[in-house]
Amino acid sequence: MKRPLVAAIVSIASLTAAFAASERQTAPPGAFPGAPPQYTRFADAELQRGFMALAFGSDLRVGAAPRGIRRYVGPIRAQLISGGSVDRSAAMARIVDEYASKIPTLHLSVAAASTGAEPAQVEVRLIDEKDFKSALRDAFGAKIAKAFVARTNPQCMTSVKSDADGVITHSVSFIIVDKGDDVFLDCAYHELLHAFGLSNHDPRNYWTTLNQDRMVGYLSVYDRALLTVLYDPRITPGLSVSQARAVLPGVVHDISQALNLAEPAQKPGKGR
Predict the structure, then answer these.
(1) Does 270 reside within a domain?
(2) Range of the domain at 157
(3) Which region holds residue 181: left if phi is over 0, alpha if psi is between -120 and 50, else beta?
(4) Structural domain tally of the chain?
(5) For 144-165, what is each residue's pLDDT tens digit?
(6) 78 in helix, strand or coil?
(7) For residue 105, which of 77, 75, 68 has the smallest C-alpha distance?
């Protein structure tokens, strides 16, 4: 269930200084009406904390819990499988293209639908809400699907499979298409973050789409930064928590500078 909008605004306003974010901007073009604004400047510590919370762990664990960083290695092809009553395939293709252009280290493209083509690493299944639970049962079996729905009450879902070294081998995202633009956009941007390796959620993080108390519906500056960190060559599959913490400061600093995310220095005697 989503937080009331007023409560969310109060929380963000009261915690801005503590979380070290600034330069709020309105939602970008293409967002649904009423989409929340985003902050565009962050302290390195806030990017590091967010990355560690989202890159380790997952709500849906099938088999052993992942022990380290999970991400793809090499080019990623995404296949769009449209099966819902509302045709969102063109909109979904634009979203995949946006991820590809804004995070070039993903080496992401939409897979050709031609017969005999190599299987895509990422499947995006566009479905109606009434088919969601049956899609989960088909993917995971009735027992796991029932437990997952009872624990998280999801609107959409992503399954990520990886090998023993942490290399993701296949992702499947189920995106609802018939509940309006806000649900579709929120699910589409949210689930692709999971598909590429940001597997967890963080209810304490006020900037990420992967806070389930927020409905965002666009690729925020913050989430773009975290995914860019994940696909930096220094963040390799299988990194443990301690190994990631050791390399993360340098990676975050470099990416923050490259994307112009660093908090501006405050002048002496001036508050925020």
Answers:
(1) no
(2) 5-258
(3) alpha
(4) 1
(5) 777 767 666 677 889 889 999 9
(6) strand
(7) 75
| pLDDT lower than 50: segments of the chain | 1-18, 61-64, 267-272
Nearest-5° Cα angle at 124, 120 to 125: 120
User: In whole angstroms, what is the distance from residue 186 CA to residue 202 CA?
Assistant: 16
Chain centroid, CA 211 distance in Å: 10
Instruction: Tell me the DSSP string of 235-265.
Output: S-TT--HHHHHHHHHHHHHHHHHHTT-BPPP
Instruction: Indicate if the alpha-carbon torsion angle 54, 59, 61, 65 is positive or negative.
Output: positive
Query: Which single residue is written with the structure tokens 């009331």?
Result: 4
Q: How far is CA 189 from CA 31, 88, 112, 215, in A?
A: 11, 13, 21, 10
Any residues with CB less than 8 A from the CB of 77 and at least 6 apart, and which?
Answer: 108, 109, 110, 111, 118, 120, 121, 122
153 part of a folded domain: yes
pLDDT at 17: 39
Task: Say if 264 falls within a structural domain.
Answer: no
DSSP states of 124-142: EEEE-GGGHHHHHHHHH-H
In a domain, 154, yes or no: yes
Alpha-carbon gap, residue 264 to 249, rounded angstroms: 18
